Amino acid sequence: MPIIITRDDPRYVSLQKGHNARFPETELDAAKRIFLCETSADAAVALQQIVSSGLRPTIRSGGHCYEDFVANNPGGAILDLSLLSGVNDSRSAPPYRIGPGVQLWNGYLELYKRYGVTLPGGTCGTVAAGGHISGGGYGLLSRLHGLSSDWLTAVEILTINGSGKVIPRRVDARHEADLFAPAGAQEAVAWA
Fold first, then answer.
1. φ, ψ (nearest 5 deg) of residue 46
2. Which of 173, 190, 174 is nearest to 182 (CA)?
3. Best CA proximity match to 79, nearest among 88, 70, 92, 87
4. CA–CA separation, 1 vs 42, rounded Å?
């Protein structure tokens, strides 16, 4: 089960903010609740609770959002994925699993020390993988190896259907490829 932080919890004051401490600007701009998730199942349960309560969800993997897309959520809820911070070899496809809360510097070290590989990711070590990779994942190795997102073989996502039910999905090139393929990739396949 997710850990639910409300405004009366002593952790709330520090957890409502990300790296950019300007946001939320006022108490009225702040989220009502913060859901800390340790597993993908926790994230699904938390998102269902948020949606069923009629709250607006915002997602935080590491808290590096300088544009204030997360913390400024008046009366809403933050789905915090920072505790999903594992890097491991799953011994099946995809070969390496990187949690959305993995800070890049920790991810690089784990991947290199354990498996002798890396990602063509960013240079700011405290950015978490969830935001970095879903934003494309540009870094110093990108000229040579492309974006981090180019190396994805599968992702776990949560969608919400028209009835408000949260649906966990694992998508890859063969399973729900329309949710996975880069823009234009389907057109290229259709013309092949």
1. -65, -45
2. 173
3. 70
4. 5
Q: How confident is the model at residue 165 (pLDDT cuts 50, 70, 90)?
A: very high
Full-model pTM: 0.88
pLDDT digits (tens, 9 = 90+) for 62-87: 888 878 889 999 999 999 999 999 99
| Beta carbons within 8 Å of 76's beta carbon, 6+ residues apart | 31, 32, 50, 55, 56, 57, 58
Measuring CA to CA, how many Å separate 128 from each of 18, 81, 83, 132, 177?
A: 12, 10, 11, 6, 25
Average pLDDT, the chain: 88
Instruction: Tell me: pLDDT of 191 over 70.
Output: no
H-run or E-run covering 92 = none
Cα 18–chain centre separation: 14
* CB atoms closer than 10 angstroms to residue 39: 14
Q: Cβ(99)–Cβ(85) under 8 Å?
A: yes
Dist CA 122 CA 187 (whole Å): 29
